[in-house]
Amino acid sequence: MSDGDLIKLYSKQILALAAAIPHLGELDAPDGEAKARSPLCGSTVSVGVTLDNGVVANFAQNVKACALGQASAAILGKIVKGLDRDTLQRGRDQLHKMLAEQEAVPTAPFEGYEVLQPARDFKNRHASILLPFDASLAAIDDAQSD
User: Fold this and answer.
1) What angle do CA 40, 43, 48 make, to 5 degrees?
2) Does the pLDDT of residue 22 top 70, yes or no?
3) What's the pLDDT tens digit per position in 108-143?
4) Does the bond joining 22 to the residue before it have cis omega, within 30 degrees of 0?
5) Which H/E stretch holds residue 107?
6) What is the signed CA dihedral for 44, 45, 46, 52, rounded to 10 degrees?
7) N or C end: fewer C-beta atoms under 10 angstroms in the chain?
8) Which DSSP state fits 25?
């Protein structure tokens, strides 16, 4: 990877997001919890959720990932409250298609992921970017398994 590629990949906007991840920490009494890990890079995201009628009422996350994974966690953290599992799954699917298949930016409320379009060319980073979704979906599944 050239220096120019790194500069393009880790733009100021991505680094700003990575530095301001909302909802860091843990919930006192989550309904569900999950941890997702990228075997390729070792990045991890742990999520705790509480649900109210199937939608995320409260959310906390611990993020140990590259700047792209952190930026993804920041974007999702800003919008996750009030979303249900189906909406989160749709966002994850659209983000995956944006990254892997060069498709359009995810639709609302996930349009903030536009900033991660430069990561399309770096397949080894895709799993890290998807981790916040994977952990959130698994935490919701954990909460609904009771």
Assistant:
1) 135
2) yes
3) 999 999 999 989 988 989 999 999 999 999 999 999
4) no
5) none
6) -160
7) C
8) S
Q: From the centroid of its chain, how far is CA 1?
A: 24
Taking the C-alpha atoms of residue 104 and residue 123, their distance in angstroms, rounded to an integer, is 17
Q: How far apart are the first and last CA of the chain?
A: 46
Provide the CA 90 distance to its chain's centre, in angstroms. 13
Asked if residues 135 and 36 have their Cβ atoms less than 8 Å apart, the reply is yes
| Number of residues written out for the chain | 146
Tokens of 83: 């979303």
Three-class secondary structure of residue 33 per DSSP: strand
Q: Please state whether beta strands 55-64 and 32-37 pair in parallel, antiparallel, or not at all (unpaired).
A: unpaired
Q: So what's the pLDDT on residue 54?
A: 96
Q: Are 50 and 101 in contact, with CB atoms under 8 Å apart?
A: no
